[in-house]
């Protein structure tokens, strides 16, 4: 390219297939992109359906394409929110505007729109989000443009003066102060909606009434238009919005019946947001071309020698993803502007380990000065951001699993495991639970498996962390049954529990063992109480009250002194059971009422809650234990899905791994005790939905492979071990920055009676370093050795006469070769 750009058209393998783009007539574009997702028109349902795919491919290098039924008639235009990758606005010939909370194409899409607006001006043609204010939309109908605040859905903020003919295009100025339009009456108009409903500038600018587009040039006063001249030649013109009488310049692009979008046959073109570009390869622009059967990515790169440095001259500050103000604030005259924002790990998250790029901690012996500069420029990032999940060899799988219970309550994790065995609920009558020994992996028998029979439906169950043979099962009959699994596993069906705990008056939600004291169990129930049990005596020892509704989840603090609960009444509570039956602290929990989980993080200083926001989006919240009443100090939205994200927290790395029953994606975050608190890491994706994910003790991890967590993934027909590893180059060394001394949490520090009497315990710690490995912090630095010495090295060793002789010999050889070639 003469302008210095290297334009790369992907080969067929890089095209997004399974696309059925329709040929429809509307004023809007037919494809739009956020940093994560791509939405486009399809020919299905008369154009009322949209296709949805992702910007980046999945772990298999391919794109998943799904469709969403949106409207009863043609979708005429669409737009992603600049502040939310998953918020999509659509307008249609059915005279409605809808807002959708879409999610990854592999996941189940929402069944309906979150917001529906009815402008009442006939067929709608255009929709555009405001660039600085959240929830503010410009909507264009046949002749009228309206402004809507999505939080007040009854009527528009303003209806601008009608145009003289068909409205063809709308564009906001980057600072959000002005709105420009182009129209079939050949006029260009500029509106200041807060000052007046009539145009502040208007002029006969277009040469033809054929199709046109208008676009503000950044935050300047210049406007760019594309359209047709009087000879039907396509043209581009530049205008000063303050003087629309004549254009500042123009360029003719030749004659064609097609609109001036690209020079190739296309149904639409979308530009991928800047925050999704690969800056380390000097990608400055990415365009997605929609054709009848494919979406073709077109990448624009600036050739640079170094791909290891950030080239600041190519990337001026770009707009961030946080709205400067609300629609109401803007309408009242607010002039706040977005602050420039640097891309973080959550801006365009990797969809799989294979799609990540860049260098993680440990790829280099020590960070260079340029690396530090990039790190400070791009903001905080996690050393675990490239964490890779991998399913282990099939020899370690349990296969041919039949009769799995797929309808366990939302408060139940779905199954549980310890270092020796796994417990799986079955759908057969009598609340049966199958026990599988991890040392006996393989294909399971079709029939005749011994089980634990509880005689009632199972609500929740858990292994004793200090006794790998003891399993407690909570039933819907308000009883807790304690079972003892014999050494080597079940050889016959068990029907008589070791102990039955009775005290709750209604069915039980969940059970949780104390993290320090042996034989101490907490249970929550529909009777809105939490009860503590001493398993050694079989007695109920404490009853905690104060809940006003369903108890979604509970968790003991790491030191075992406190118990936290999250409830459907919207409250987060902390109890000190030995001092009071009432909560010692209360605070606001998640707004959504579909389910939640709570876990203590960062040495017990914070509570992380996994729940739903008011729009039913799954969201993570972080609360300070010292000021629970102040509300969440940080949040991290994930996606829209009906199942609650179940967290597993590793205190050694401060990494939390989350997934929901029925999901195919596993989210991973590092939690840090300072802003931004949540550092998103590469997620793990499975090929089929899983029913649960349980984790094993840290000693089961293979440190030689830099494995920081090992889990068991339960699917409909199998149990598969999954290893989560940090990619490192020098694996021959023990990565002591990843493996601090770990707590021996599988050994109790005191008895239940001692804890109830007021004593506290603390786990011992051990090192995971094998005896034959050296810590990487003590490893010798690698010396860079050049494969070949530079020519100057050889020349310095020779005299001038030797150099002349060598030159003469080379010349003679070249002459001889040329003569031989000519003679042939």
From TrEMBL:
GO CC term, one of those recorded: cytoplasm
Pfam families cross-referenced by the UniProt entry: DUF1899, WD40, WD40_4
InterPro entries associated with the record: Coronin, DUF1899, Quinoprotein_ADH-like_sf, WD40/YVTN_repeat-like_dom_sf, WD40_repeat_CS, WD40_rpt
Keyword terms, alphabetized: Actin-binding, Cytoplasm, Repeat, WD repeat
Main location: cytoplasm
Molecular-function GO term, any one: actin binding
Stretches assigned to the DUF1899 domain: 6-58, 377-442
Coiled coil: none
Region (Disordered): 330-376
Keyword Ligase set for record: no
Single GO biological process annotation from the record: actin cytoskeleton organization
Start-end of Low complexity biased regions: 337-371
Claim: Repeat is one of the keywords in the record: yes
Record-stated family: Belongs to the WD repeat coronin family.
Protein name: Coronin
């Amino acid at each position: 390219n003469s302008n210095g750009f290297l334009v790369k058209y992907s080969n067929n393998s890089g095209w997004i297939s399974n696309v059925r783009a329709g040929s429809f007539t509307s004023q809007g574009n037919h494809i739009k992109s956020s940093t994560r997702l791509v939405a486009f028109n399809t020919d299905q349902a008369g154009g009322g359906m949209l296709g949805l795919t992702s910007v980046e491919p999945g772990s298999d290098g391919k794109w998943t394409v799904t469709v969403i039924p949106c409207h009863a008639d043609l979708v005429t235009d669409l737009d992603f929110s600049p502040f939310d990758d998953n918020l999509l606005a659509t307008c249609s010939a059915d005279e409605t505007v809808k807002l959708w909370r879409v999610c990854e194409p592999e996941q189940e899409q929402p069944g309906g729109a979150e917001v529906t607006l009815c402008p009442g001006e006939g067929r709608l043609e255009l929709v555009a989000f405001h660039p600085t204010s959240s929830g503010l939309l410009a909507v264009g109908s046949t002749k009228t443009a309206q402004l809507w605040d999505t939080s007040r859905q009854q009527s528009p903020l303003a209806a601008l003066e009608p145009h003289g003919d068909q409205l063809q295009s709308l564009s906001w100025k980057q600072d959000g102060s002005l709105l420009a339009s182009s129209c079939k009456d050949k006029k260009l108009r500029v509106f200041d909606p807060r000052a007046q409903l009539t145009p502040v500038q208007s002029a006969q600018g277009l040469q033809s009434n054929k199709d046109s587009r208008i676009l503000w040039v950044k935050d300047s006063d210049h406007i760019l238009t594309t359209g047709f001249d009087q000879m039907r030649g396509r043209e581009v013109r530049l205008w000063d919005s303050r003087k629309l009488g004549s254009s500042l310049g123009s360029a003719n692009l030749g004659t064609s019946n097609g609109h001036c979008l690209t020079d190739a046959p296309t149904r639409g073109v979308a530009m991928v947001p800047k925050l999704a570009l690969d800056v380390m390869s000097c990608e400055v622009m990415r365009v997605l071309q929609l054709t009848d059967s494919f979406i073709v990515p077109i990448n624009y790169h600036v050739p640079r020698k170094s791909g290891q440095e950030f080239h600041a001259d190519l990337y001026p500050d770009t707009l961030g993803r946080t709205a400067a103000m609300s629609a109401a604030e803007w309408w009242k005259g607010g002039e706040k502007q977005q602050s420039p924002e640097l891309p973080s790990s959550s801006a365009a998250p990797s969809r799989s380990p294979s799609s990540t790029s860049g260098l993680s901690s440990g790829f280099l012996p020590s960070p260079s000065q340029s690396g530090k500069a990039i790190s400070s420029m791009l903001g905080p990032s996690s050393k675990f951001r490239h964490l890779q999940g991998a399913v282990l060899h099939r020899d370690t799988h349990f296969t041919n699993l039949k009769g799995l219970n797929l309808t366990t309550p939302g408060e139940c994790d779905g199954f549980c495991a310890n270092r020796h065995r796994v417990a799986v609920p079955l759908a057969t009558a009598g609340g049966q639970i199958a026990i599988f020994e991890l040392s006996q992996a393989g294909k399971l028998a079709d029939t005749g498996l011994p089980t634990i029979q509880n005689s009632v439906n199972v609500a929740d169950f858990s292994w004793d962390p200090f006794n790998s043979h003891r399993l407690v099962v909570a039933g819907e009959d308000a009883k807790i049954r304690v079972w003892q699994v014999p050494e080597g596993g079940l050889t016959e069906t068990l029907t008589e529990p070791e102990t039955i705990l009775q005290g709750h008056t209604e069915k039980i939600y969940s059970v949780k063992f104390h993290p320090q004291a042996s034989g101490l169990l907490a249970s929550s129930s529909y009777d809105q109480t939490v009860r503590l049990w001493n398993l050694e005596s079989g007695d109920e020892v404490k009853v905690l009250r104060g809940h006003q509704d369903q108890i979604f989840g509970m968790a003991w603090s790491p030191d075992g002194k406190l118990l936290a609960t999250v409830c459907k009444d919207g409250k987060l509570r902390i109890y000190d059971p030995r001092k009071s039956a009432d909560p010692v602290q209360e605070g606001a929990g998640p707004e959504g009422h579909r389910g939640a989980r709570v876990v203590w993080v960062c040495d017990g200083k914070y509570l992380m809650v996994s729940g739903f926001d008011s729009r039913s989006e799954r969201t993570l919240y972080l609360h300070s234990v010292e000021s629970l009443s102040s509300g969440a100090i940080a949040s991290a939205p994930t996606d829209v899905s009906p199942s609650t994200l179940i967290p597993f927290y590793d205190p050694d790395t401060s990494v939390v791994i989350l997934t929901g029953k029925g999901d195919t994606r596993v989210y991973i975050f590092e939690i840090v005790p300072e802003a931004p608190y949540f550092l998103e890491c590469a997620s793990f994706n499975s090929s089929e939905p899983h029913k649960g994910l349980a984790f094993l003790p840290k000693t089961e991890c293979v440190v030689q492979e830099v494995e920081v967590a090992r889990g068991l993934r339960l699917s409909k027909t199998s149990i598969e071990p999954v290893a989560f590893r940090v990619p490192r180059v020098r694996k021959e060394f023990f990565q002591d920055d990843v493996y601090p001394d770990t707590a021996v949490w599988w050994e109790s520090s005191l008895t239940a009676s001692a804890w109830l009497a007021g004593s506290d315990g603390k786990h011992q710690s051990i090192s995971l370093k094998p005896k034959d490995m050296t810590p990487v912090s003590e490893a010798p630095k690698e010396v860079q050795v050049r494969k070949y010495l530079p020519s100057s090295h050889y020349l310095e060793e020779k005299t001038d006469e030797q150099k002349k002789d060598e030159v003469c010999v080379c010349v003679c050889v070249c002459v001889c070769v040329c003569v031989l070639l000519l003679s042939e």
